[in-house]
Amino acid sequence: MKQSIAMTVNGVARRDEVEPRLLLVHYLREVAELTGTHVACDTSQCGACIVHLDGKAVKSCSVFAVQASGHSVMTIEGLAPHGSMHPMQQGFWDEHGLQCGFCTPGFIMAAVALIEDNPDPSDADIEKGLEGNLCRCTGYHNIRKAVKSAARAMRGGATSAAAVAPNAAPVGAGAGR
Ligand code: FES
Ligand code: FES
């Protein structure tokens, strides 16, 4: 039997009827039609599905949609206003922190949460903070550089979250639907 849920997704209040077993990741992709959040494993290991739940990074494949009811969710689509990039997206762009891009939304959401907790992370801090994310093609060197670049920008350093052309797709928002 379906249950009524209500939550805020990227600042927009939603109310839906869902099966109690529906995972948050499937709710976001199939009900809210926000396909920037990806699914890449059956074992809660890859991190492609990471979103923010009340500001904390969570693997949305390990949370039921009903558990998120009454809470606030942010996906990669909600990270920056339309037509602009968050400093973390800019960092991945500048440092070539992606190849196919499938893992990128999860990395970016995890990295943003990491920087909010630790604005000046060491290489070791980044490796630990992102140990729940797997990338199958880029390797982790440029991802680490991207996070450092973004952290600098978020502290007000030289590398910036430059606005990009209107209608440009946010990094990590569309690859591998
Ligand atoms: S799909 Fe959630 S951890 Fe892999
Ligand atoms: S960029 Fe392809 S899996 Fe990470």
Reported CATH architecture of the largest domain: Roll
Bound molecules: FE2/S2 (inorganic) cluster
In spatial order, strands of the major sheet run 2-1-5-3-4
Distance between the termini: 29 Å
Shape: globular
How many helical elements?
5
Q: State which percent range the strand residues make up.
A: 5-15%
Give the C-alpha Rg: 16 Å
Which runs of at least 5 residues are low in confidence (pLDDT < 50)?
Answer: 160-170
CATH topology grouping of the largest domain:
Ubiquitin-like (UB roll)
CATH class of the largest domain: Alpha Beta
Q: What name goes with the CATH superfamily of the largest domain?
A: Beta-grasp domain
Query: What series of H and E elements makes up the topology?
Result: EEHEEEHHHH
The portion of residues assigned to helices is 25-40%
Number of individual domains: 2
Structural class assignment: alpha+beta
Count every beta strand, where a strand is a DSSP E run of 2 or more residues. 5
Overall mean pLDDT: 91
Question: Main β-sheet: number of strands, strand sense, barrel status?
Answer: 5 strands, mixed
